[in-house]
TrEMBL record:
NCBIfam families: PRK05692.1. The keyword Metal-binding applies. Keywords: Lyase, Metal-binding. This is Hydroxymethylglutaryl-CoA lyase. One of its GO terms (molecular function) is lyase activity. It comes from Muricoccus vinaceus. Belongs to the HMG-CoA lyase family. The keyword ATP-binding does not apply. PANTHER family: HYDROXYMETHYLGLUTARYL-COA LYASE. It holds the Pfam family HMGL-like. It comes from the Bacteria. Residues 3-271 form the Pyruvate carboxyltransferase domain.
Length: 300
């Protein structure tokens, strides 16, 4: 058995940190994550730098990490303008984000859901050959403004999006961290049962209420085998009030190791990397494994 861990700290983890992280340091974090065995890394986003100033150097980080062997560098884009900037910078793996929730989509990308879905169709039809596309459905479980999302609404959003292109990877995103394991298992199971064999699935969880790892386990039981996570438990959406960090990559790696599931990650190296990230000025780290393992080392 194997699970794929997709490291999102350089994007989702860094974006809420106010003090600017120097580009050299961002590059070093990506290099350290790669050295720890992580091969899929979301290194930044092409968004308006006024909205997310921390990620204004994504093009440079992308350029300087391009030589890492086997690295699949993913970048987030919210609209067609972001896609154009990403392609201009040489991105070969783009993640487009749209929200299931009308209110969150307007807050996050300043447009209604129907407009985002229509634009997604245009992006799919015009994407150059060889560029991979991922679709992130934000607020798949809960919206900071509208509350719990009805499963039928989420499935209908996916129906409209996948009508443009079924052969895509879809991220089911617990944007607020308010999902629970039963909800995650139910929606993930429904998605896998309803949509075609060409669609691949990722679970993106936050740990706002301490259920991040339990939700990862629930998604795994439902049949999802790829998971977004952030070293040090960093993260949080600036457009989802109250949401805190992503589920910690080291916690997910430790859990899967205990379950006998291979992730290809060097846990010791990952914990050292997480400790560095947790000490960043302005960071709000999370997770439990980092403290447990480093504490054990200190007492032996």
């Amino acid at each position: 058995m194997r699970a794929t861990l997709i490291e999102v700290a350089p994007r989702d983890g860094f974006q809420p940190i106010a003090p600017f992280i120097p580009t050299n340091e961002k590059v070093a974090f990506v290099e350290a994550a790669h050295a720890a065995g992580l091969r899929r890394i979301e290194i930044g986003s092409f968004v308006n730098p006024k909205a997310v100033p921390q990620l204004r150097d994504t093009a440079e980080v992308l350029r300087r990490t391009a030589g890492l062997e086997g690295l699949d560098a993913q970048v987030l884009v919210p609209n067609a303008r972001g896609v154009a900037l990403a392609l201009e910078a040489g991105a070969r793996h783009i993640a487009y984000v749209v929200s299931a929730s009308e209110a969150h989509n307007r807050s996050n990308v300043r447009r209604d859901v129907a407009s985002s879905i229509a634009e997604y169709g245009e992006i799919v039809s015009g994407l150059p050959a060889g560029v991979r596309l991922r679709l992130n459905l934000a607020t798949s479980f809960d919206c900071p403004f509208d509350g719990r999302m009805a499963e039928g609404l989420v499935l209908s959003r996916l129906e409209a999006l996948l009508a443009h292109h079924e052969d895509v990877e879809v991220g089911l995103c617990d944007t607020t961290g308010r999902a629970d394991p039963d909800h995650v298992f139910s929606l993930a199971s429904a998605c896998l049962a309803r949509f075609g064999e060409w669609t691949r699935w990722v679970f993106h969880g936050h740990d706002t209420y301490g259920l991040g790892l339990a939700n990862v386990a629930a998604a795994w039981r439902a049949g999802i085998t790829a998971f977004d996570a952030a070293f040090g438990g960093l993260g949080g959406c600036p457009f989802a009030p109250g949401a805190t960090g992503n589920v910690a990559t080291e916690d997910v790696a430790w859990m899967f190791a205990r379950m006998g599931v291979n992730t290809g990650v060097d846990l010791d190296a990952l914990v050292r990397l997480a400790a560095r990230a947790a000490s960043l000025p302005g960071a709000a780290p999370g997770g439990r494994v980092r403290a447990a393992l480093l504490g054990a080392c200190a007492t032996t």
